[in-house]
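Convert to structure. Protein one:
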Amino acid sequence: MPIETSLTALLGVKHPILSAPMDTIAGARLAAAVSAAGGFGILGGGYGDKAWLERETAKLAAASVPFGIGFITWSLAKKPELLDIALGAKPRAVMLSFGDPKPFAPHIKSAGARLICQVQTEDMARQALDAGADILIAQGTEAGGHGASRTTIDIVPAIVDLAAGRVPVVAAGGIADGRGLAAMLMLGASGVLLGTRFYASQECEGTEEAKKLICDASSGSTTRGVIFDLSRNIIWPGPFTGRSLVNDHARRWMGREIELLQNMPAVAVEYAAAREARNFDIAVVFAGEAVGLIHDIPPAAEIVERIASEAEGILLGRRNSSASLQA
């Protein structure tokens, strides 16, 4: 029996499983596949590529499935037309991360879309609620890509307590199977948002080489820091850093970040060439600590069904055990 929560009711989906908006590798094909399987797929708006966004939203608009679109919030401040393109595709929700959502919330909500805000602290959650967030994503440091320092098992119940039932809270960070979904529901979350697990799916637009590296990695194979941002000539504000697979480039610069900052122009040229050549000894693969649980590259629909089924079995077993103890 499907797991029904305030999240599934609000978004009108079967399973409380969301796919993360992982920049341009989370394209229309992945978002549509997750939604068609009963989850909620979120297109990655990333840093804001207008042509890409127009192309991918057109595909989603024709797919006849519910979907969301996610943005790095400050990219909208630089390119406000991106939000108009997104809302023109009639998404069920828009997700904002890493910045104040208040300037964009009225436009999103007046268009009839739900506002999803990803947060890493209670202060960020209060800011999001004040802006009118309909859903909060409580992201732990185990998550791949950009985030902060608090663990998922710490930040999720803290945000659940702060939300106090006003809006659903979704857990993110280090989750890749039904055990993770069941655990987060026990912590009070109404669902989960998964990035790395859907990175290693057939519909993700990431390279096959990167997907294989995720499958071959262990949970101890990731690191959080600024090396790859500096190498891409991108400066993220504190407290945000990026979690990625450890490679030769990361090992070269660990503990030498100041020196890397001083040599950014030269390193950026080397890095750009490696990225173009798909040389992942240098180029980044953003991935979370859930890599240790990922060993295959199935269709996204299979991932959704597998996680939902496993979590349902765990929760049913728990209910049956509780009933037996009370009998």
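Protein two, convert as well:
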Amino acid sequence: MTFFRKTILTFLFVLLIALGSVFYLRAQVYYSHGSATDQKMFEIQKGEGNAEITARLESEGLISWKYYFYYYIRSHGLINKIMPGEYQLSGAMTIPEIAIAITTAQEQFVKITFPEGFTAAQMAARLTANALPGDEFLQLVQNPGDFKKRYDYLTPEKVKTLEGYLFPDTYFFKKDVTAANIIGRLLDTFDKNLTAQMRTDAAAQKRSVSDAVNMASILQKEVQTPSDMKTVSGIFWKRADAGARLQSDATLSYILNDKVDQHNAKELATDSPYNSYLNAGLPPGPISNPGVDALIAAISPTASPYNYFLTATVDGIKKVVYAATYDEHVANKQKYGL
């Protein structure tokens, strides 16, 4: 083989490698995707630099590699043209799609936070306060026919409204979002948080999802910490399984629309199926929209010797005090002035 021929072959080999690298880079820049499967809100603060933004896009699974993204915006004259704002992005988007989204004027979103334990009425009021369709939202919550066809956990006959299944979280909604789409987002989020393992655990204890949600809604309003929720869950399930009254002030607060920890004799006599001082077992439906800790506690209660509890304020801090016997419970009430 002559020197000239060797040179030609070497040149062609190097050229093939170079062309292959170019095509590979182009494919990665134009067609690669991130690892995030769901849409998420990506917020860009005023003053953030290109390097910081591209690094966050990678860390949140929205792009495959920050240098591919940086190459694209540099080669297309988009350096320093990224606009501050909140963007709804997904790892299914390509780098050019994301680059276009964050360098052009975006749709405005309304940020809404629903705290754990909010009722549907409270959620509706917060939507209305932010110029979103709160009244229609509440109407659909109370008449969930179409939604019951879409979600298997809503199919039991005892599920009359969507109270309890509207998962509390922070959401970003378009300003023209419909009430049905808002509810769909909340129900989808509930569906994701009620894991397959949680459903299996509930079934193993012969408890329906609707009963677990009902219990979780009470726990969410009664106590604060995951540990207390699990212990109180054990107490309440013992009462419910025995056909006894739960005697939860949280169910009375739902009826009376108050935040009272201890109700008086007149209030305890309120005639309502939600009054767990008068009626045995669980109320007809959830009394709030619980978070994941309360759901876990309802499904996986802690066994304990306790049969009673009360919430007392000790040194300015609310504390749950437990008792095994009624006499101990009475003594605790006297001790804490309840």
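Residues 190 and 314 are 35 Å apart (CA to CA). Residues 209-304 form one domain.
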